[in-house]
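Progress note, sequence design subtask.
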């Protein structure tokens, strides 16, 4: 997902990785991907934005403000 966000940004789209915890970023590989926590997400989100969520988001989908949501498959 981090690489997908990098590709979207390099193509001119405004894209971010969203983590519930402010300041969190995966650290098991080097990256400078745009990452936002809940606080920044609330200020960046605009009506009509498309959210791409992992398939295991479960009941939390009800908390998402977007009317258009995409799912992505995650590998385990």
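Output:
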């Amino acid at each position: 997902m981090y690489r997908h966000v990098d590709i979207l940004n390099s193509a001119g789209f405004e894209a971010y990785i969203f983590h519930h915890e402010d300041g969190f970023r995966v650290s098991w590989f080097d990256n400078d991907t745009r990452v936002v926590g809940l606080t920044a997400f609330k200020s960046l989100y605009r009506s009509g934005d498309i959210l791409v969520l992992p398939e295991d988001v479960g009941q939390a989908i009800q908390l998402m403000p977007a009317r258009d949501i995409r799912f992505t498959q995650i590998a385990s």
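The mean pLDDT is 79. Work on this subtask will continue into the next period as scheduled.
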